[in-house]
Amino acid sequence: MSIPRQVFEFLKMGSMAHARWEIETSMSIMRSRKKLLVLLAMLLPILAVSFATAADMIGGKEAYAPSFYSTYIFVVSIAIGLCAGLITGCIGAGGGFIITPALMAAGVKGILAVGTDLFHIFAKAIMGTAVHKRLGNVSGKLAIAFLVGSGGGTFIGGAINKALYNYDPNLSDFFISSIYAVILGFLGFYGLIDFIKLSRAKGAATADAHGGTSGLTKLAVSVQNLNIPPSITFDEDFVPGGRKISGVVVALGGVVVGFLAAIMGVGGGFVTFPMFVYVFGVSSMTTVGTDILQIIFTAGLASIAQYAIYGYVFYTLAMGMLLGSLIGIQVGALTTKVVKGIHIRGFYAVSILAGFVNRAATLPKKLVEFEVINVSKPTVKMIESVGNVLFWIVVGIFAVWVISKFVMNIGKLRGDYDEYIKATLVKGEV
Predict the structure, then answer these.
(1) d(Cα 370, Cα 149) in Å, to the nearest integer?
(2) Could you tell me if residue 137 is left (phi over 0), alpha (psi between -120 and 50 degrees) or otherwise beta?
(3) What is the pLDDT of residue 207?
């Protein structure tokens, strides 16, 4: 397997793990009356503000300074959350990747989109994450070392985003769009190649099975053999005497996760899972519990300490996305019962590529503004418009397709709903 292919599998597995957390968190919120009341209490004042003509200004470049806001953009935030939730619930991966690009496509500045997405993840985490039995498998030393690193990473990533924005808001947007274009392009093209190969193969029905053994990867063995003090012992419940790893290595991994979370606004969960399992050699049980903790603390620290206190969080949009995603995840997850897995794989690739095209299409305009290239303004405007339109068309078609499948099969799905919820929550507690 080539290195690019390994990187693709690494990111895809991480994205799937994060999607499982999103689905479980959504189920936890939607099945709890107390949590629904809390959500309603949070939404009521925001709904009032959203539809009040006297309150058009929220967020901004400076702390608490105004940025244009309207009821329309609040409705758009619900739609964005809904589409992201449908992708997460139906595909089981990738939904979180389109939120920041979608907000930017709707006209929100990149730094506001990142800060708002992080706050939305943080709000969902503290509302929906229950203390499961599996959290007993979290290694305290492992978690502390990782969170120290991820905390430092959020400060580095947040500082870069703020410095670029304060220097030139266009440079900040260019930086964020470039990162998303590279990552989404990489995931999208490899995902499309996967889909084409599987659609031609006779064994496509079993293509969702993932290989691998319960043992350590060669990389994990090498990492655990690094003799850099202090050493941390973990997984004592699964391996006699436990395994050991350098706390410095774990902290450096946390720095990477925190940095990506603060730069992209995605919580970092899509990197934590594959990093712990394939690089550090941590058991899945311990990894899952640590991932839950890191999402709460990393997203919380990044969104509040790096963005909210500087006025870079659009609270109204965050709550709109939370509302939309909770609904979307429920619909998307149930729809998987009545659609073919190969179709889901295809939509995963196309939706990720749509995000890539959208962000890549904004780059020529920025390069012209920086006087790096010489292209006419009508041309770069047309490129940006085409990328924007294609993005919304693809996401819209996917949303309509999933919702139509849900509506057409609602009779069948209604009978399965309670069993599905119970099964999902039981899996989360194992």
Answers:
(1) 35
(2) alpha
(3) 41
Tell me if 91 sits within 8 A of 355, measured CB to CB.
Answer: no
Angle between helices 247-264 and 140-167 (to 10 degrees): 40
**Among 273, 342, 268, 261, which Cα is nearest to 91's?**
342
What is the tally of structural domains in the chain? Answer: 1
Q: Domain range spanning residue 190?
A: 3-204+213-429
Count how many residues are written for the chain.
430
Q: How far apart are CA 373 and CA 352, in angstroms?
A: 27
Global model pTM greater than 0.90: no
Measured CA to CA, the distance from residue 9 to residue 352 in angstroms comes to: 15
Q: Which positions ≥6 away from 213 have C-beta within 8 Å? A: none
What's the rounded Cα separation, in Å, for the pair 152 and 149? 5
Q: Read off the amino acid at residue 231.
A: S
Q: Is 246 helix (H, G, I), strand (E, B) or coil?
A: strand
Which of 216, 218, 198 is closest to 208 using CA atoms? Answer: 198
Residue ranges of the chain whose pLDDT lies below 70: 1-5, 7, 10, 46-70, 92-94, 128-138, 201-215, 267-270, 341, 412-430
Per-residue model confidence as pLDDT tens digits over 139-182: 778 888 998 999 999 999 999 999 999 998 889 899 999 988 98
Distance CA 142, CA 213 (A): 23
Beta bridge partners of 246: 231
Q: In this predicted model, what pLDDT tens digit does every residue of 89-99 receive, in sequence order?
A: 877 666 777 88
Tokens standing for 243?
Answer: 């395994």
Cβ contact 242:286 at 8 Å = no
d(CA 278, CA 9): 11
- In angstroms, the CA 129 to CA 257 distance is 20
* Contact (CB, 8 A) for 91 and 351: yes
Tokens of 273: 């899972």
